[in-house]
């Protein structure tokens, strides 16, 4: 507030910033500002999930505890398709053939056929 930043700047519209500014102006208690910030952030997240569901019909939600394994499987499948394609194209060693992390991905998700 002391810096006199324009309230239309993106940083001033960031999650929680308007509520914090209202608190600093004395319009809200800190608890009220925090509660409103949490509410607005949840609403934003809900809009993003709604958008994803409508714009990307193949979008699949993954539980947080399963995200790492799901990401590893997706990379392995993606790399597998890339490896097969590059092998067909140039007939030589595919890219990623010597990637240091390929074994970690394979162990995380099993071999990809």
Set down the secondary structure blueprint.
Blueprint: H1 17-24, H2 30-55, H3 67-90, H4 102-109
Helix pairs in contact: 1-2, 3-4
Number of beta-strand segments: 0
The helix count comes to 4
Give unreliable regions as ranges.
84-97
- For this structure, the CATH topology of the largest domain is Helix Hairpins
SSE ordering: HHHH
Q: What structural class is derived from the secondary structure elements?
A: mainly alpha
- The second-level CATH architecture of the largest domain is Orthogonal Bundle
Spatial separation of the terminal alpha carbons: 58 Å
Radius of gyration: 23 Å
Number of domains as seen in the coordinates:
2
Q: How would a textbook summarize the main sheet?
A: none
**Mean pLDDT figure:** 74
What can you tell me about this protein's structure?
- With 113 residues, this protein is mainly alpha-helical.
- The protein has two domains: 10-55, Crystal structure of tRNA isopentenylpyrophosphate transferase (bh2366) domain (Helix Hairpins), CATH 1.10.287.890; 64-109.
- The protein has four helices and no strands.
- α3 packs across α4 (102-109).
- The longest helix is centred in the middle third of the chain and has 26 residues, at 30-55.
- It is elongated and about 55 Å long.
- The model is unreliable at 84-97 (pLDDT under 50).
């Amino acid at each position: 507030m002391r810096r006199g930043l324009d309230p239309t700047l993106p940083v001033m519209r960031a999650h929680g910033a308007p509520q914090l500014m209202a608190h600093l102006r004395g319009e809200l208690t800190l608890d009220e500002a925090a509660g409103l910030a949490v509410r607005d952030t949840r609403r934003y997240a809900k809009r993003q999930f709604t958008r994803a569901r409508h714009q990307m019909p193949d979008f699949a939600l993954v539980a947080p505890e399963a995200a790492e394994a799901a990401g590893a499987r997706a990379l392995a499948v993606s790399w597998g398709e890339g490896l097969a394609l590059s092998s067909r194209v140039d007939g030589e060693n595919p890219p990623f053939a010597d990637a240091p992390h390929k074994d970690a991905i394979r162990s995380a998700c099993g071999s990809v056929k």
